[in-house]
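Before we proceed, please read the two lines closing this message. Tell me what the token row says about the fold.
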Amino acid sequence: MAKERKILQPEMNIGTAGHVDHGKSTLVQALTGVWPERHSEELRRGITIKLGYANADLRKCASCQGDDAKCYTTMERCPLDGKKTILLRKISFVDCPGHDTLMATMLAGSTLMDAALLVIAANEPAPQPQTREHLVALKIMNVSQIIVVQTKIELVSDERALENYEQIVEFLKGYLDEIPPIIPISALHGVNISFLIKEMASRFTPPPRDPSKTPRMYVARSFDVNKPGTRPDKLVGGVLGGTIIQGRFRVNDDIEIRPGAYRSKKFIPLRTKIVSLRSENTPLEEAYPSGLIGVGTLLDPALTKADNMVGNVVGIPGELPPTWLELDVEAKFFKKIVGTKEEMSIIKPKRGDFIQLNVGTATVPAVLKEISQEDEMKLLLRIPAAAELDHRVAISSRIGNRWRLIGYGHVRGGKEYMPPS
């Protein structure tokens, strides 16, 4: 038997995208054994609200002959013969909400994805509005490794499942150059899960990583992990949760966080030290890109509680990207709004309009100061945002009572934010 590789943290992030109530979280639970929705409001309402995370091992039974899909599993023991399986790849799921009011959260999650499962339920006509919108978001963020998962096949007849399958194919033809695999499953009953694992193991490959680059992390969650009533001498510092997008961080590294904490109507950059690194329950001495990494710090936990630090960028002091108060964005607008039941023509924003940008994991409201005939926009940000030149951003506009994705752009410059001294 081949010796198993020892992998401490996930090698790539795989997102779940798709319309609300199409079974994304149920699918993640079927693959990982973990229900990704942990927030009390999510449990009460039964929908994903925040980004959810769960790790999984893609494995294959060492004793199985050939490449039968039944040999693939996420368990350490083969479900067929009980023998030990071999680890092929460790992955982390980024479970995104599908409700149209939570599109900004989905866009934040898409910046962390290396690949995605586009989840489409068999018991509804395809495509639904957020199915279209999420696929466009994946394209905007350059997520090209995609597998389509047709869920809830247990709720429909074979004829209806086939009809839905054909609808999915026609939908994908309008958006993708090549039709990805479409795998019908029942996450509730575990039907065809092994086929999906096989496709993920064979088709999804981690992007190239350069550990020598300046380390940088997008903050997607933040926590106060102290229990109520903890004595002052037992309190631990705030925890930042997110994905390292380049380089590597080590325990005891000094780090800077921008734009930082909001105090006295100003954003103040923060400096602290890394005291711990974790990938789920695995402690790390150093962490690399991919997977949700928990970064323990010496920050006052009041700063990090309840996701207060979401949207920040973490790096080595003095080596972070610029923090902008105004942005010049070279925009590209869609012809149609894809997130509504009826696709409507887009009316480009005009001077004075409010728009919304997604910059990394930050959702940034902005006022349009100027727009040229070439769609070069000058924007006044209502909150500062850290971003490299040429960074890709998503652009949304208020249409009716919802923010709708209308295009994307690249950062070309602007006016830097000057924090108080």
Remarks:
- Residues 158-173 form the longest helix (16 residues).
- The radius of gyration is 22 Å.
- Residues 38-48 have pLDDT under 50 and may be disordered.
